[in-house]
Amino acid sequence: MNEMKRENIESTKYDIPPELQGQVEITTIDKIYNWGRRSSIWPLMFGLACCAIEMICTAASRYDFARFGMEVMRPSPRQADLMIVAGTVTKKMIPTIVRLYNQMPEPKYVVAMGACASGGGPFKEGYNVVSGVDRYVPVDVYIAGCPPTPQALIHGLITLQRKIDAQSIKKVRWYRKEPIEAVPIPVLGPDVVDPHQYAIIHEQAKKLHEEAVNQAAETAPAETA
Ligand code: SF4
Questions:
Q1: Do 118 and 154 reside in the same domain of the chain?
Q2: 20 to 30 A from 16, CA-CA: which of 55, 69, 77, 216?
Q3: Using CA atoms, how far apart are residues 58 and 154, in angstroms rounded to an integer?
Q4: Whole domain around residue 100: which residue ranges?
Q5: Distance 94 CA to ligand 1 centre (A)
Q6: 5-41: per-residue pLDDT in tens?
Q7: DSSP per residue over 96-118, as a string?
Q8: In testing the pocket of ligand 1, which one of 46, 48, 50 has its CB within 8 Å of the most ligand atoms?
Q9: Ligand 1 in contact with 87 (CB < 6 A)?
């Protein structure tokens, strides 16, 4: 076990006799559980636009994110626990992205790679682009840049590992008794409708309808007897 990995799991509370060091480790459930997960994250294999090219470079030999145990990019969401949203999120694509997210088992994480995935990027306010994937799925790490370099992606992945290191098995959502609700799938239309907003949309539509009815009643000619 190399020094970096030992640092992640060893407990500093107990002194290990010198003759046993390197053979025995004392740790906590949280540390060993997180260490296992953070060292074998399997990303979902998909890309949306130019940022995906940088993600592919990061997986290739020069940068090689196999060092993080992440080289097994999975073509199925059932086998993936990390969604790297690499590229422009269009209104046509977001229902599929949310569906894929829902199909990933817990624990799962999302990285918004680049300006487009984080907030719409150069296409923000465009007729066909979503202003950030975090409007629909929860994002754990945002990576700045257009596109972010492979180094920036690696920095984002290390940040995600740190986040995993800080989680406690007692508090994580996937071990709670309450069932985890799936994220509502947005509806593709003239503009994407966010199902989170259904109640507000319904209220506003009702109000507008009532106003129109009242206005029509006021302007209608009075009935003659
Ligand atoms: S952030 Fe820049 S490089 Fe990445 S998908 Fe958008 S336009 Fe392309």
A1: yes
A2: 69
A3: 8
A4: 40-175
A5: 16
A6: 555 666 666 777 888 887 887 888 888 899 989 999 9
A7: HHHHHHHHSPSS-EEEEEHHHHH
A8: 50
A9: yes
